[in-house]
Amino acid sequence: MAQAVSTHASVADASAPRAADDQPRSRSWPRILVLVIGAAVFLFPFYYMLIGSLQSEPDTSLSGVVPTGGFTLDNYVDINKRVDLLRSLVNSGIFTGGVILFTVVLGVLAGYALARLHFRGGGTLFAVMLLVQVVPFQLLIIPLYVMIVRSYGLADSYLGMILPFAINSTAVFIFRQFFLQLPEDLFSAARIDGASELRILWSIALPLVKPALLTAVLVTFIGPWNEFLWPFLITKEADLQPLAVSLANYISNVAGRAANPYGAALAGACVLAAPAVALFVAFQRHFKASDIGSGVKG
Amino acid sequence: MTTATAAPATGGTPPRGPRRSVLATLLGRQPLGIAMAAPYALFLAAVFAYPLGLAVWISFHDYFFAAPGAAIDRPFVGLDNYTAVLSDPGVRRSFLNVLVFLVINVPLTVVLSLLLATALNGAIRGRTFLRVSYYVPYVTASVAVVAVWLFLFSRGGFVNELLGPLAPDPSWLGNSKLAMPLIALFVTWKQLGFFILLYLAALQGVPKELYESASMDGAGKFQSLRNVTIPGVRPATTLVVILSTITGANLFTEPYLLTNGGGPNGASTSPVFVMYQRGIEQGNPDVAAAIGVLLVIGVLFISLVNKRLLERG
């Protein structure tokens, strides 16, 4: 098959050498233009966010896009006075960390069972997981609010924030996909040697799917770190609010009265955005089309 | 070596006695799988299946918040909550708003993400940089990027400076005709990176020979896009349409923050925002649950229609 393709390609090359010469040039200019305009549209707001957070006076004029001086960290000091940045970041971290822990532990076990073991109910579980993907979380906010806040009294607690996000079917799909790709021989050999299923999972399968682990952590991270609605509903104490919630409260309540309202809000936005952006730039190799595609397609 | 150890494995798997095979038919060949999947399944029942049922139950009863443990009578009221919802102009407005949102957001998302994914597919210098810059908005919190959009689109903001005399009056987010389209644009921009990734994955599955034979038949860039790429990524398109519809149905943060609570005059409210207002602010969870049920029915209906249309066309 591969050979047939390559001969086909070489025939095409030989028969039309001129067309092949012309094509890259005529094709790539509009293409590069589209890509560069796209990148500018995607990145400009982030650039604007950063320079806006560093200026004492908002400069919205066209020349203000390239500021020449007058940089200050006052906006960061200002937002830190109104929103306890460190405390909020810690809350975001606990919320996100808890969700990742639950997702990975529950997801690895379920993904392994679905990929490698034959058991009653496996097919049903898989079908239910697909259903979870299409029911919007927002339908559940009223019953979850009733359960977590009214029935279990978990308002203003980390556990109340974490529980609704403890399972993530995308992560299970990713794990299942990676476990499926491992050769069957590996497992039967280990079973012959008398290894228990948990031991096979822990010392053979898991080390081989480390990339999937990282991808799943990245995919899971975005959810709770950026989530606004749920923690906003169940935390009334400022001490427990993740940064997304405390910053949103600042934007909707206080911003109008601050000296440089946009500057302080943008400074807070930079603090909220920086960890996520840094993480995804650093680990961009693990957030690729194929990984996510396998996760979503199941 | 692997073949040597693997060979007896097939001999060892068949059940050894009648007791074992009964167990196997009852629980499956490897019942340990049940134990391993159980924690996940329990959570699925507790934070998904049960609340889903509870939402439907609440929507058919006269439900109100009460102290935990208090035994209160919550009578069955049939479709009362649904008639209350459907006769509420604020709710109808929010559903209409989300339709406006979807009409703008979904086609724009499909076209732009397919265009950018096609342009990004293949070897280009700076591919990694471009790919990362496309998904930066997707991985950033809405709350953070809302702050900069508020700044960019404020009355004396950068966008109006750029437009000069063309700047709309009243300005973007205060203009009842422009508020919802701007939110649709915001969400398109924010989510596009994820959909580009989906299309990039789908493009890997389109056989290269098809492009070659198309170009040998004299097809131009546009024709091969129409005749090879678009049919080749049709399943991905179905997925993109369904996922962006779900994202639209979930709209809350943007109307809450960007237009300060669905303003001006309810021109940018969303069903979820109204659920929050009616259910939690005003203490009518039964009405809010009915809105949620209608919303999900709407999403499922739109998804099914889209799936039919896309798979046929």
How many alpha or pi helices of chain B?
15
- The fold-level CATH name of the largest domain in chain A is MetI-like fold
Helix proportion range of chain A: over 70%
Fraction of residues in β-strands of chain B: under 5%
Average pLDDT rating of chain B: 86
CATH class of chain B: Mainly Alpha
Low-confidence stretches of chain B: 1-16
> How would a crystallographer describe the biggest sheet of chain A?
none
Architecture per CATH nomenclature, i.e. the level-2 architecture of the largest domain in chain A: Orthogonal Bundle
How many domains of chain A, as an integer?
2
- What is the string of SSEs of chain B from the N terminus onward? HHHHHHHHHHHHHHH
CATH topology of chain B, by name, is MetI-like fold
Strand content of chain A: under 5%
Q: How is this structure best described in words?
A:
The complex is a heterodimer of chains A (298) and B (313). Helix content of chain A is 74%, strand content 0%. By secondary structure, chain A is an all-alpha fold. In chain A, helix 4 packs across helix 8 and helix 11 packs antiparallel against helix 14. The N terminus of chain A is likely disordered. Chain B is globular. Chain B has a single domain, classed as MetI-like (MetI-like fold). Chain B is mainly α. Classes of the chains: A mainly alpha (298), B mainly alpha (313). At the A-B interface, helix 1, helix 2, helix 4, helix 5 and helix 6 of A face helix 1, helix 3, helix 5, helix 6 and helix 7 of B.
